[in-house]
Amino acid sequence: MHKYIILGKTSQETAASMLNKPQNRRTITEPLAEAFGASFIEFLYLNHSDFDFMCVVKAKEDKDMAAITNLIYASGAFSNFNWFRAFEADEWQDVFQSASDNMASYISAKQKSQEV
Known about the structure:
CATH class: Alpha Beta
Shape: elongated
Mean pLDDT: 94
Strand order of the largest sheet: 2-3-1-4
């Protein structure tokens, strides 16, 4: 399972709906995540001007996260909604180790332009 971060800004319509009927959106949306084999680790609301929602999710594949987030965004509940893959420190070390191991195979545009 991979970890993902979701950041979003709820829409004005969502705020109005929550005022009219306060809800625990985590319990309401958990079945959606489970339908894709995903699970919520954190489900948080924030007091930030650019985003007011953050979620940490575990899911099997990027395509599952893309499906979940596209479905939620299409609902109109958010005016801005993004997801990102998150890496643990040891996973990130492995990413850079792979890059380091294969560094010699890369030629930058600047290097290529200076070839005679």
